[in-house]
Amino acid sequence: MKALIARTVFAGIFALTGCATQYASISSGHSRQTTDASNSQLAGQGETLLDRAIYQQSLRALGVDPKSHQAAILRAWKKRLGDDPELKAAFPLGLPTAPTPAGKLLFAEGMARVTPATRAAFWSLYTKVTLAHLPDDCYGIRNRAEIAHRVMSFPNMSDSDTEEYMRILWAVLHAGVRHDPEHVPTEAEHQAAVVALSKVLSADMLTATNANRFARVMVSPATASIKDFCWAMKTSTEALNQLDPADKEALLSQSLDQAALNALRTVQPTIAPPPTPSTAPSAFKTL
């Protein structure tokens, strides 16, 4: 039963690997201006009018006013990402875009390899934005990855949220390209975290009405109303955010490690079951 209660949270964690892709569409071409022979004469002159117009349209497509302070924050981070030697070396043609298998793998593996503090910061930011901006009907959809993608958009983030988001994205990219070691919790740590999560959820559901509502979503999510589904998603998201750091890390790290493996299987469909952590190869070797 405890594993059943945790199911919604785990699905939400998997969806987080899609949250870190919002910025890829306006940063993926960071090296093309200087590597394209047709632009070689313009490269030394800095940004061209066409470059600027394309970038502004990219911002508008993401719901960002090109004249806003948020746009200035993103422009600064775009330059920082574009000038970064490690990222250039790993992706000389630019960061892979979100919808591609390589893009999904990039962010999934990076999220699995960041420090526990960075993972916790991302979940806290996700929780903050979700509770403040996710409508009660979850946009009328039930796909958690799509919900996470829509709610974690720049129009829903303050300037400080945007800075935090980009700082986390920076850490995700570098953890991936450096092949930082993953923290894999023990089975005992994971089970203890599931118990702790169940206790938090139970404490938040003191009424029989709420308990029955959550149970309907857990047992038969396809037949639950969209508002009940959305409420359960918000409730479980907030519950995980209330866990102590060790329990939160045990749930996040294991689930994101599985998400990275799933992303790798989209690149190598015949990949074998995961090896032991001490001998696990980096998924980036497949890029």
Estimated radius of gyration: 20 Å
In DSSP terms (H or I, runs of 4 or more residues), the helix count works out at: 14
Structural class: mainly alpha
How much of the residues is beta strand, in percent?
A: under 5%
Residues in helix, %? 55-70%
Task: Tell me the number of strands.
Answer: 0
**Ends apart, CA distance between termini:** 40 Å
Shape: globular
Low-pLDDT runs of 5+ residues are 29-44, 270-287
Q: So what's the oligomer here?
A: single chain
Mean pLDDT: 77
Q: Tell me about the biggest sheet?
A: none
What is the string of helix and strand elements?
A: HHHHHHHHHHHHHH
Task: Explain what the structure shows.
The protein is mostly helical and 287 residues long. The chain has a domain at 11-20 and 60-195 and 246-286. It has helices spanning 2-15, 32-35, 40-43, 49-61, 69-83, 85-90, 101-113, 116-133, 144-151, 159-177, 187-203, 208-219, 226-241, 245-267.
Write the SSE topology:
Blueprint: H1 2-15, H2 32-35, H3 40-43, H4 49-61, H5 69-83, H6 85-90, H7 101-113, H8 116-133, H9 144-151, H10 159-177, H11 187-203, H12 208-219, H13 226-241, H14 245-267
Helix pairs in contact: 1-9, 1-11, 1-13, 5-10, 7-10, 7-14, 8-10, 8-13, 8-14, 11-14, 12-13
